[in-house]
Design brief:
about 230 residues, mainly beta, five-stranded antiparallel beta sheet
């Protein structure tokens, strides 16, 4: 998908993207260990603003929030009227520390946390637009994460994953006008770069926002002795 994220530390990202950030409107990040759609999510827009956005994309012409999308498929993003203009002119980078996917077996859903095996963050390719929120009586920036086929490791749990950008691709993604170059960035993140492990079912609760969400569950093997 992904539809649930963890965003609690953006220091490494801001260091890697410092030449691209013209206006840091976030400053100190508000940590979220279990962030669902509609809540604020940090994003670096291609106008240089690093700010909180609405996790859930709404084009400027949308009549209401029923048409919200949290993901946009890389394979068809240029063909869809909803995403086409933003793909060409309003791209962004969404830094996260990881995301959740659920393994479904016998109707039971087991949450897994997915993160970079080496780096502190994953830089996700995204798009943005401005939407007038009637309830707030103001324009808000809304964003969606671009997805692609999952790699083999993640594919055992879910068939889709976000498009992850390398540091060298930050500037081309934000500023290139060459659609062929932009499309070349839609690569499947390799197995060797991702780590995933089972986490607490508390993640299933949307309002649960504790650091324990990202902690690995250590399973005791059958026959394994314990001190207790």
């Amino acid at each position: 998908m992904p539809g649930r994220l963890a965003i609690f530390d953006d220091i490494s990202f801001k260091e890697d993207a410092k030449s691209l950030i013209k206006n840091d409107m976030i400053q100190k990040l508000n940590p979220r260990y279990n962030l669902p759609p509609t809540l604020p999510i940090p994003a670096l827009l291609n106008n240089g603003n690093y700010l909180y956005t609405h996790f859930g994309y709404l084009p400027s012409w949308a009549k209401d929030k029923k048409s919200m999308n949290i993901n946009a498929r890389s394979e068809s993003i240029f063909e869809k009227q909803t995403f086409r203009d933003s793909f060409r002119f309003r791209r962004c980078i969404i830094p996260i520390n990881g995301f959740y996917e659920w393994k479904i077996e016998d109707k039971e859903k087991t949450p897994y946390f997915v993160k970079d095996i080496k780096n502190e963050y994953l830089a996700l390719a995204g798009i943005w637009d401005e939407y007038f929120d009637i309830e707030l009586n103001m324009k808000i920036v809304t964003t969606a994460i671009i997805t692609c086929d999952a790699n083999e490791k993640l594919g055992k749990i879910h068939h889709r994953m976000p498009v992850v950008l390398e540091k060298k691709d930050f500037a081309p993604w934000l500023y290139s006008k060459n659609l062929k170059e932009i499309n070349s960035l839609f690569n499947i993140y390799s197995n060797e770069k991702l780590e995933l492990y089972e986490v607490s079912s508390n993640v299933n609760k949307v309002l649960f926002n504790e650091k324990s969400c990202i902690e690995k569950i250590e399973k005791i093997q059958v026959g394994q002795q314990t001190l207790f």
